[in-house]
Design goal:
- It is a single chain.
- This protein is α/β, with parallel strands linked by helices.
- It folds into two domains: 16-271 and 474-496, 3-Layer(aba) Sandwich (Aldehyde Dehydrogenase, Chain A, domain 1), CATH 3.40.605.10; 276-463, Aldehyde Dehydrogenase, Chain A, domain 2 (3-Layer(aba) Sandwich), CATH 3.40.309.
- The chain has helices spanning 16-19, 22-26, 62-77, 86-102, 104-115, 119-125, 128-142, 175-189, 203-214, 229-237, 250-262, 285-291, 317-329, 349-365, 398-401, 417-425, 440-449, 481-486, and strands spanning 28-30, 33-35, 42-46, 53-58, 146-149, 155-162, 165-169, 192-196, 222-224, 243-247, 266-270, 276-279, 309-313, 368-371, 388-391, 408-414, 429-430, 433-436, 456-457, 471-472, 475-476, 489-496.
- The chain has a seven-stranded mixed beta sheet with strand order 14-15-16-13-12-18-19, sandwiched between helices.
- Helix 3 runs parallel beside helix 10 (229-237) and helix 4 packs across helix 9 (203-214).
- The relative contact order is 0.14.
- Mean pLDDT is 97; it is low at 1-6.
- Bound molecules: nicotinamide-adenine-dinucleotide.
């Protein structure tokens, strides 16, 4: 993934009243129609920059979710979508991608406006949304949805069919990209879906519904109801939902897995991380700083793959720490609407409180704050936290074991490659990681032994063809690539007479 130039979203703050359609501001997308909410509850969106309310939108009530699940079930059981050929579905996916491109600036502005993501990060990531649809449209042409095998007797066709109705639940940090990754794969498989965005970021999924509508998908194939946990619980418990695909915290994932296990529903979980970046003793610190340091705390560390444990050889510790601290202290903190800003605020008051608590926990555990360590100076409002580096961190400390989800990085010293691998693997999580060495073969040997679902050597990369997901408590299953499509399929063996 390249760090691209800032996006052309302008510097004027998001103006939901004038930038969003009436439908997105006031309705839900259910059964191909924009329906008014059944209840009166609302979600209030707060600007992380000003702490002012920016807008409020309707919150999904049980009746709204009931209507969405019924529509998705009907569309799956009796509608045309699952019965279209993969290539016919691919045409729809391409049309959705075109509609996303048309609205890309709006999506980007909504992302920045809702949670304060900085423009460089939005620019680097948001192009993936349309790409997910084009990737799965292309894959549909070659994927073995059906193959013949030679059994001992008769003939055998192995069919890969859509799993059914999928509930897609996403968090607030990167809502467009995380949702499109799921929706594109589910639709390519022939599933119908109910998408539940989080209360903090309801807009992206609703704008995506406008794309789906403009692309002419049959009613009920995609339904969108922003809702909180209670109504979300209804969704995961509903027997009409065949598969729950969840991205979010490990705690919520554990609960969702338990509910799904009870009714033997399929479940995919993309959860938290505590990823390690290992610098071998021959690593070029300059290239690490340039290519990876931004991913130690991208979007103020509120990204699952943040490389939050930096493992440095004891022999080069001081040299590394001086360079890393200087690089972090040179980052420009500020308003995400300013294109020069590299680090914006954290997204909400509860994030600010959580991160500040962890900084105190780190201090209490005996780790040393070498830069940052509290609220950022120079801001009299907004949830700004100074990018924080802890040195002298022992891997047994809570700041090294728990996901902080903020701009806080732990530097951990080690003696040998063997010890670095052991520290990287001494974690409940197993999501991402990186290894830096002048010798790529050495880095690869280390990377092969790190137990994570994603790892990069001498850089950082993500791609639609690359399966993404976690070992251990970072999740179950994979998204992206053919593996992401497989997550929305069931396999059927059909025997025929010879
Ligand atoms: P969260 O778990 O609090 O919420 C995520 C979503 O799940 C929200 O839409 C929420 O409303 C919903 N939810 C929570 N409990 C539910 C329930 N019982 N039933 C139905 N829905 C429920 O997480 P968050 O704070 O929004 O997001 C941050 C977390 O997401 C971090 O832990 C981060 O690592 C993780 N994340 C993981 C990935 C990945 O790909 N592995 C990507 C992004 C974020």
């Amino acid at each position: 993934m390249a760090i691209t130039a800032p996006v052309a979203v302008g510097s004027r703050p998001f103006d939901p009243q004038n930038e969003l359609s009436d439908n997105v501001r006031t309705r839900f997308f259910i059964d191909g129609q924009w329906l008014p909410p059944a209840g009166n509850d609302r979600f209030t969106l707060i600007s992380p920059v000003t702490e002012d309310e920016t807008m409020s939108v309707p919150a999904g009530a049980p009746q709204d979710m009931e209507a969405a699940v019924a529509a998705a079930r009907r569309a799956f059981d009796t509608g045309p979508w699952p019965r279209l050929t993969p290539l016919e579905r691919a045409e729809h996916l391409r049309r959705i991608a075109d509609e996303i491109d048309r609205r890309l600036e709006l999506f980007q502005r909504a992302w920045i406006g809702q949670v304060g993501a900085p423009q460089w990060f939005v620019g680097a990531i948001s192009g993936a949304a349309a790409h997910h649809f084009r990737y799965y449209a292309d894959l549909a042409a070659t994927y073995p949805f059906e193959e013949e095998r030679t059994p001992t007797m008769g003939r055998l066709k192995v069919l890969r069919e859509p799993v059914g109705v999928a509930a897609l639940i996403i968090p607030w940090n990167a809502p467009l990209v995380l949702l499109t990754q799921k929706v594109a794969a589910a639709l390519a498989a022939g599933c119908t879906v109910v998408a539940k965005p989080s209360p903090e970021t309801p807009l992206d999924a609703l704008i995506l519904a406008e794309c789906v509508e403009a692309a002419g998908l049959p009613p009920g194939v995609v339904n969108v109801v922003p809702a909180g946990r209670e109504v979300g619980n209804m969704l995961i418990s509903d027997a009409r939902i065949d598969k729950v695909s969840f991205t979010g915290s490990t705690d919520a994932g554990r609960h969702i897995a338990t509910v799904c296990a009870d009714r033997l529903a399929r479940v995919g979980l993309e959860l938290g991380g505590k990823s390690a970046s290992i610098l071998c003793d021959d690593a070029d610190i300059g290239s690490w700083l340039q290519s990876l340091a931004p991913f130690t705390m991208p979007f103020s560390g509120q990204i699952c793959f943040s490389q939050t444990r930096v493992l440095v050889p004891r022999s080069r510790h001081d040299e590394f720490l001086d360079a890393y601290v200087a690089a972090v202290e040179s980052l420009k903190l500020g308003d995400p609407w300013d294109a020069e800003t590299q680090v914006g605020p954290v997204s909400m008051a509860r994030q600010r409180d959580r991160v500040l608590d962890y900084i105190e926990i780190g201090r209490g555990e005996g780790a040393r704050v070498v830069t940052g360590g509290g609220r950022a100076s120079g801001f009299n409002r907004g949830y700004f936290i100074a990018p924080t580096i802890f040195d002298r961190v022992d891997n047994s400390m809570r700041i090294a074991r728990e996901e902080i989800f903020g701009p806080v990085v732990s530097v951990i010293s080690y003696g040998s490659d063997e010890e670095a691998i052991a520290i990287a693997n001494d974690s409940d999580f197993g999501l991402s990681g990186s290894v830096y060495s002048a010798d790529v073969a050495r880095a690869e040997a280390v990377a092969r032994r790190v137990r994570t679902g994603h790892i990069s050597i001498n850089g950082f990369n993500l791609d639609a063809v690359a399966p993404f997901g976690g070992f251990k408590k970072s999740g179950i299953g994979r998204e992206s690539g053919p593996e992401g499509l497989a997550g929305f399929l069931e396999t059927k063996s059909m025997f025929l007479p010879a």
